[in-house]
Design brief:
heterodimer; A: about 325 residues; alpha/beta; D-Maltodextrin-Binding Protein, domain 2; 2 domains; 6-stranded mixed sheet; 13 helices; globular; B: about 500 residues; mainly alpha; MetI-like fold; 23 helices
Chain lengths: ~325, ~500
C-alpha cells in the first residue's frame, strides 16, 4: 500500500504542476470597457510584435484592491495601469511603486494633465452627468443639479455606481463630499439611493426604469445613443459635469523597463487617442475631436479641478470611501 | 462599530436559514409523499423536473427575479397594476426574496432525502396501519414521519447549510436593500481592500467554520436514526387514492414548480433578447446582447475555457482520489486493517467537512494558505478549491460500489502475480466504471457553474463563467448577463439529459 499512498500524494500535487504560471507577458490592468479595450489590440500588436499583451478588466476600485493585494504578496503582476481613480495613482506614487515616464507622447501631454514628477499621465477625461428615463421622468421632474437629486420626490428612484467598485463613482463621491460636505451622503441615504456596481449596471437600471434617475458616465450614454437606444436622456448638471481624470502609469516591478515606457508612450500616439474618442470619451489633447454626440470640452461647463487639489482631497480617499460605505451602503 | 454590522449579518443569515428550512419542509415532505405514495398523475415527470432543479445554480433564478419582481418596473408589478390596479405588489429586494429564491432550488435536497427514505422503508408498516383503519393523515403522522425523521433531519441540516453558504442570491437581491448576510458581508469586507478588513472577515469565516462543524456533528448523530437500508425490497406500497383531489393536487404541484422555476427561467431567456435591459416591449427585441457575448466579449471565451478546464481537472482529481480512498477503505473493511480503516475514514470525514463549510470560508482559508506558494491568479487555486469542496460527492458515490468487490478477485490477481497498478487497471477500474462516471458528472456540474468561491479566488486571466456572469449582472450589462445565464442553463440541461440517457 506504500505505492497507493505515494500515488495519492502525487495525484493531489499533479494539478499544481499542470497549472504553473505562464511565461513572460505584458499585463495591462484597466477599467476601460470590455468592448473598448480590444480596439487597442491591433495597434499594440503591430507596434510591439514580440510582446504578448494580456488584459485584466474590472472596476477601478476592484483593480486597486487587487494591486494592493498583489503588492503585499510579493509584487504586482500588472505592468501598466489604466483606470479612472486618480487618487489611487497619487497613493501609488507616494508608496514609490510607479516608474517615472518618458517619451515623445508623454512629453506632449498638456501640463495640467501630467504629474510634475512624471509618475502618471492623464490621456482621457470621462465626465459624470445626470441621466434620466425619458418615459418616467418628464417636465419639471427632470433634475438640473446634484443638489436637486436630494429632493424627496426622487426617493426610491435614484441610482449611481458604487464608490467601492468604480473609480468614477469614488471620484464623484469625493467631489460631492468636498462641495456639500457629509450631509450630502446622509441625504442620499434618505432618498434611498441604490449605489451598486459600475456605470454599465447603473445605466441598465435607468433604462429599465427600475431606478429612473441616476449619476452616470457620459460615455455610457453616448454609446447607448449611438446604438439607437433612446430611452435615456441626460443633463449637464448646474454645478458642472464632474471630470474624472483617468491616468496611465507603469509599475516599478515591470520586467522590461524600456518596453513598459514605450508601451505607455504608445497610448499617447494619435492612433491610440483616436480610440479614446471612439470609445466615447473626451481626449485631453485640445486638437482631438470630441466623441460622437458630445460637445467639445471647451464648450462644456466642467466642475473645476486640478492635480494639486486632487492631491489634497486624496489624503481623505479612504476616509470618504468608508464614510460613504457606512452612511449609504450599510 | 463593526460588531453591530456583523451581528446584523449573522441575524440575517439565521433568519434565512430558518426561513428556507421551514419553507422547504412544507414543500418537500408533502411533495415527496404525494409523488411516491399516491396515484398522483404525472409523478414521474415531476420527479425528473425536480432532479433538474436540483442541478440549477440558484443565482440564475435571482437574476430573473430581479427582472420579474423589482418594485418599480418588475413585470409582475406592471401586470398587477395593469390588470388589477395594484401597484408595487412584490419586491424582490428583501430577505424574503432571498428565502423564496433559495428555497425554490434547495428544497430538492430535502425532497430527495425524504423520497429515498420513502422508497427504502418497508411499506408493510404503513399498510398494517391502514388495514387497522387509520386514514392517510394518521398513517403519515404516526408511522411514516416518525420512521423517517432521521431522513428529514439530515435533509433539513443539508438545506440549512446550503442556505447559510449561499452567496449569489443574497448578493443580487439583498445587498441592494442594504441587507447583508455573513457571506456577502465577508465579500464586502474583502472588497474594501484593507488588511484590517480582511482579518475581520477571516475571523468571522473561522467562526462560521466552527458553527458548521458543530452542525455536521449534530447531523451525524441525528442521521444515525435514518432508516436502515432494506435492500432486496419488500412489496411495493399500495398507492393512496387521492380521489377527487388527484387533479387539483397535480395541477398545484406543477403550478408550484412553474412559479418557482419555469417562470423565472423563461424570464431569463426572454430578457437575453432585449436591447435595453428589462424593458418588456416588442420593439425592444434584439440580438445585440447575443452578438456581443458570442463575438465581442473576449472574456466569455476565456471563461468558458477556464470553467471547462478547471471543472474537468477537479472532477478528474476527485475521481482518482475517490478510487484511492475507496481502495484504502476497502482494505480496512475487508482485510480488517485498522490503519487503513482510519485513513479511509479520515479522508471521508475531511471531505465531508470541506463540503459542509461555506464556500466563502473555504476560499478565504485557501487564500491565506496558498498565497505563500504564489498560487494566486492561477487556475490551480480554483482546481484545489473545487476539488476540496466537492470531493465528498465522488467519495460517497464510489465507495459503496467498491465495497461490493469481493476480496477473492483481488487475491486471485495477486496470486497470479499482478502488482498494484495492474490490479488497479484490470480489476478496480473496470468494475467501478459506472459509479465513476456518475461521480464525474456529480462533481463536474457544480464546479462548472461555481460562483461563491470563484468570485474570491479568480484573478486576471482566470475568470470563470460564474464570475463573468456575476460581474456582467452586477457591474456592467444585464442583457449580456442574461445571455451568459441562458447559455449556462442550456449546458446544464443538456448535461442532465445526456447523463440520464447514458445511465438509463
Amino acid at each position: 500500500m506504500k505505492t497507493a499512498r505515494f500515488s495519492l500524494l502525487l495525484l493531489f500535487l499533479l494539478p499544481l504542476v499542470a497549472c504553473a504560471p505562464p511565461p513572460e507577458e505584458f499585463w495591462i490592468y484597466t477599467s476601460t470597457y470590455k468592448e473598448v479595450y480590444p480596439l487597442y489590440e491591433p495597434g499594440l500588436r503591430e507596434a510591439f510584435p514580440a510582446v504578448a499583451f494580456r488584459w485584466y478588466q474590472s472596476g477601478s476600485e476592484k483593480i486597486a484592491a487587487k494591486i494592493l493585494a498583489e503588492e503585499k504578496g510579493g509584487g504586482a503582476q500588472a505592468d501598466l495601469l489604466m483606470t479612472s481613480d486618480l487618487f489611487f495613482y497619487q497613493e501609488l506614487k507616494k508608496l514609490d511603486l510607479l516608474l517615472p515616464l518618458s517619451g515623445p507622447g508623454v512629453e506632449s501631454v498638456p501640463a495640467v494633465y501630467l504629474d510634475p514628477d512624471h509618475a502618471f499621465a492623464i490621456n482621457r477625461l470621462p465626465l459624470m452627468v445626470i441621466a434620466y428615463n425619458r418615459e418616467k421622468i418628464t417636465g419639471d421632474e427632470v433634475p438640473k443639479s446634484f443638489a436637486d437629486l436630494l429632493d424627496p420626490r426622487y426617493e426610491g428612484r435614484l441610482t449611481m455606481p458604487s464608490p467601492l467598485e468604480s473609480g468614477s463613482a469614488l471620484t464623484t463621491a469625493l467631489y460631492l463630499h468636498q462641495r456639500f460636505g457629509p450631509p450630502y451622503f446622509e441625504a442620499l441615504r434618505r432618498v434611498d439611493v441604490l449605489a451598486a456596481g459600475g456605470n454599465g449596471a447603473t445605466l441598465s437600471r435607468i433604462q429599465s426604469g427600475e431606478r429612473p434617475v441616476g449619476i452616470v458616465l457620459l460615455e455610457n450614454l453616448l454609446k447607448a445613443e449611438e446604438m439607437g437606444l433612446r430611452s435615456v436622456a441626460w443633463v449637464y448638471p448646474e454645478e458642472g459635469a464632474l471630470p474624472v481624470p483617468a491616468p496611465l502609469a507603469i509599475f516599478r516591478g515591470t520586467d522590461d523597463v524600456e518596453l513598459a515606457r514605450r508601451v505607455l508612450d504608445w497610448f499617447f500616439s494619435e492612433e491610440a487617442r483616436a480610440i479614446v474618442v471612439k470609445g466615447w470619451i473626451h481626449s485631453v489633447f485640445p486638437g482631438d475631436p470630441p466623441p460622437a454626440g458630445a460637445p467639445a470640452l471647451a464648450e462644456l461647463e466642467l466642475h473645476p479641478w486640478d492635480l494639486a487639489t486632487f492631491e489634497q482631497w486624496g489624503t481623505r480617499r479612504q476616509e470618504v470611501k468608508t464614510r460613504f460605505q457606512k452612511t449609504v451602503l450599510e | 462599530m463593526s460588531t453591530e454590522f456583523w451581528l446584523r449579518a449573522a441575524t440575517n443569515s439565521a433568519l434565512i436559514v430558518a426561513g428556507v428550512s421551514a419553507l422547504s419542509l412544507v414543500i418537500a415532505v408533502p411533495g415527496a409523499w404525494l409523488l411516491e405514495r399516491t396515484d398522483l398523475p404525472g409523478a414521474r415527470v415531476l420527479r425528473k423536473v425536480f432532479t433538474l432543479t436540483y442541478a440549477l445554480p440558484s443565482y440564475l433564478l435571482a437574476i430573473s427575479w430581479v427582472v420579474l419582481a423589482n418594485p418599480n418596473v418588475g413585470w409582475i408589478n406592471l401586470w398587477a397594476e395593469k390588470w388589477f390596479g395594484i401597484g408595487k405588489l412584490v419586491n424582490v429586494y428583501h430577505l424574503g426574496g432571498v428565502i423564496f429564491i433559495e428555497t425554490s432550488v434547495v428544497f430538492t435536497i430535502l425532497f430527495f432525502n425524504f423520497w429515498s427514505g420513502l422508497r427504502q422503508m418497508d411499506p408493510a408498516l404503513e399498510e398494517a396501519a391502514r388495514l387497522a383503519g387509520a386514514g392517510p393523515w394518521r398513517v403519515f403522522f404516526t408511522i411514516t414521519a416518525p420512521i423517517l425523521r432521521g431522513n428529514i433531519f439530515a435533509g433539513l441540516v443539508a438545506v440549512g447549510l446550503a442556505s447559510l453558504a449561499s452567496f449569489g442570491v443574497p448578493a443580487i437581491v439583498a445587498t441592494p436593500a442594504r441587507k447583508f448576510v455573513l457571506t456577502t458581508a465577508i465579500y464586502a469586507k474583502i472588497q474594501e481592500g484593507s488588511p484590517q478588513a480582511f482579518n475581520e472577515a477571516l475571523v468571522i469565516a473561522l467562526g462560521m467554520a466552527a458553527v458548521t462543524l458543530g452542525l455536521v456533528i449534530l447531523a451525524g448523530r441525528g442521521s444515525k436514526r435514518r432508516v436502515g437500508l432494506v435492500s432486496g425490497k419488500a412489496s411495493r406500497a399500495a398507492r393512496v387514492e387521492l380521489g377527487r383531489w388527484r387533479y387539483p393536487l397535480a395541477v398545484g404541484l406543477y403550478g408550484l414548480w412553474g412559479v418557482l422555476v419555469a417562470l423565472p427561467l423563461a424570464a431569463l431567456v426572454l430578457s437575453s433578447f432585449f436591447a435595453e435591459p428589462g424593458v418588456l416591449r416588442a420593439s425592444n427585441l434584439s440580438l445585440r446582447a447575443w452578438k456581443y457575448v458570442l463575438f465581442t466579449l473576449a472574456e466569455f471565451k476565456t471563461a468558458l475555457g477556464n470553467s471547462l478546464l478547471t471543472a474537468g481537472a477537479a472532477a478528474f482529481a476527485v475521481l482518482l482520489a475517490a478510487m484511492l480512498v475507496a481502495i484504502v477503505a476497502w482494505q480496512g473493511h475487508h482485510k480488517g486493517r485498522r490503519g487503513h480503516r482510519l485513513v479511509g475514514r479520515a479522508a471521508e470525514h475531511g471531505a465531508m467537512f470541506c463540503f459542509s463549510i461555506p464556500g466563502t470560508v473555504l476560499a478565504l482559508c485557501l487564500i491565506v494558505v496558498l498565497t505563500r506558494f504564489s498560487l494566486m491568479n492561477t487556475l490551480t487555486i480554483l482546481v484545489v478549491a473545487y476539488g476540496l469542496k466537492y470531493a465528498t460527492l465522488g467519495f460517497q458515490t464510489v465507495r459503496p460500489s467498491a465495497f461490493l468487490i469481493h476480496p477473492s478477485l483481488l487475491e486471485a490477481a495477486q496470486l497470479a502475480g499482478a502488482g498494484f497498478f495492474q490490479r488497479f487497471y484490470r480489476i478496480w477500474l473496470p468494475l467501478l466504471k459506472a459509479p465513476l462516471f456518475a461521480a464525474a458528472i456529480l462533481v463536474f456540474m457544480p464546479c462548472f457553474s461555481e460562483l461563491t468561491m470563484s468570485i474570491l479566488l479568480y484573478g486576471p486571466g482566470t475568470e470563470t463563467l460564474g464570475v463573468v456572469l456575476f460581474n456582467l449582472q452586477e457591474y456592467a450589462d444585464r442583457s449580456s448577463a442574461a445571455v451568459v445565464g441562458t447559455l449556462l442553463l442550456g449546458v446544464i440541461v443538456v448535461f442532465r439529459i445526456v447523463a440520464e440517457k447514458i445511465r438509463g
